Amino acid sequence: MTRGDATREKLLKAAISLFHEFGYNGTSVQDIVSKAEVPKGSFYNYFKSKEEAAIAASDVFYPYALEFLELENTSSPVSRLRKYFRLTLKEMQRYGYVRGCLVGNFAAEITNATPALKKRVTELLDEATRRIAVVVSQAQETGEINPGVTTMDLSRFILNSLYGAIFRSKTDRSQRPMKLLEQFALDPFVVKKNQHFL
């Protein structure tokens, strides 16, 4: 790794940590360079703006978060959705509910003043919806989820509910919102034994 690569990595690591805990508006370029322990001028050698750094931070963080949901159809799809929720909760508990989802934090803050970040957040959330839809579709094919429900609509509902639960868990410092997510955003669509749909 070159010195330049190492400096960029330090800046990105600092940006991810700060954006994750304090959000986009609560983090300044000065905060990032101070945490990274690099001169402020170095920041602009790698990023044109705080918005560009936020996009780069999202691109590093989100693939990690998406890996919580296993797409390989080698086990129960519904069990994998439950595991996704529980791994997300475990990650929140790891940081004492101070952090939510980096991209979710951005989604709650972005305005028309940050069009590039807004576009990237939309793309990342769409990708998350598509991944959930893969597993929901698998569950419908195996008869675990009501096949009469539109796959993409249910997937959007699950993702929207997940972010609502994450936000509430942060404010309550509690696992209860994430537990309610599973109970009310997933369980009603799970097919019980001997249950049939026309």
Please provide a brief summary of the model.
By secondary structure, the chain is mainly alpha-helical. The chain is 70% helix and 0% strand.
Shape, per Cα inertia axes: elongated
Helix fraction? Answer: 55-70%
Count of DSSP H/I helices: 9
Evaluate the radius of gyration: 19 Å
Written account of the structure:
With 198 residues, the chain is mostly helical. Helices cover 70% and strands 0% of the residues. The protein contains nine helices and no strands. The longest helix has 27 residues. It is elongated. The N and C termini lie far apart (60 Å). The mean pLDDT is 93.
Throw out a few tags for this protein.
198 residues, 9 helices, elongated, mainly alpha
SSE blueprint:
Blueprint: H1 3-22, H2 29-36, H3 40-46, H4 50-66, H5 77-94, H6 102-109, H7 115-141, H8 151-172, H9 176-186
Helix pairs in contact: 1-2, 1-4, 1-6, 4-7, 5-7, 5-9, 6-7, 7-8, 8-9
